[in-house]
Amino acid sequence: MRLLGAIAAALALVAAAPATDWTHRVTQTPQGAFVLGNPAAKQRLVEYVSYTCPHCAHFTNEAAATLRQKYVANGSTAIEVRHAVRDPIDFAATLLARCTGPTRFFAVHEKLFATQESWFEAGAKYIDDNREALNKLPQGQQLQMLAKGAGLPAVVGLSEAQANACIANAAAQKPVLAMTTEAWEQRKIAGTPYFLVNGQGIDNTASWAALQPHLKN
C-alpha cells in the first residue's frame, strides 16, 4: 500500500508540474541559423529576413507576439531565422544581432524591426553625407562606420568596441554570407520575408494574415 501511495504521489507531482514554456529555448542549426522553440516541434517555420526590409518589419511587429504565445510556447512550432542580406547596413545589423548570442538574439531581432525606421534613416543619411570617404575604406571598416553612423551598437546593446570586433570577425560573417547565398542564388527567393513551413515554400505570404492559414496550432 505504501508503494502504491508513493507512486500515486509521484504521478500527482508530474501532473501538477508546469508545462515547458518553449519561448525561452534557443538553439542553432549546423548552418548557424537561430531557432526559437522546441527543437523537436512538429511544425518548423523558417523565415528568410532582411533587417532593412520594411515588409519584414511589418510582419515581425504584427506577428511576433502571437507566434510566441500561441505557437512556440506550447512546443508545437519552432521558428528558424535565416538571413537574406540585401545591403551593407543590413549586413552590419545582422552581424551585430547575432553577436548578442542565442539568449538575446530573438529579442534583439524584434527590436531591430521595431526601431527600423529610425536607425535605417540615420544609416542612409550617414552614407549620403560620407559616401566619398566610405568608398576609400576596406569593406570591414565601411561596415563598422555604417553601424556607428546608424546607431546600431546602442540598438542591440553592444559597446562600439564590441560592435567593431563583431563586424571584423570573419568567422561570424561566414554563416551570414552562406545563408544569403542559399537564399538568393540557390533557393532563389523572390523577396523578403519568405517562409517555409516544414520545408515547403509558401509564396505571397508577406503578411501575418496571409501566412497564418498555412500554420497548425
Automatic annotation (TrEMBL):
> Keywords of this protein's UniProt record, alphabetized?
Signal
Gene3D superfamilies documented for this protein: 1.10.40.110, Glutaredoxin
The parts of the chain that form a coiled coil are none
User: Which InterPro entries does the record associate with it?
Assistant: Thioredoxin-like_fold (IPR012336), Thioredoxin-like_sf (IPR036249)
Q: Where is the signal peptide?
A: 1-19
Record-given protein name: Thioredoxin domain-containing protein
Q: Please state every residue range assigned to the domain named Thioredoxin-like fold.
A: 33-216
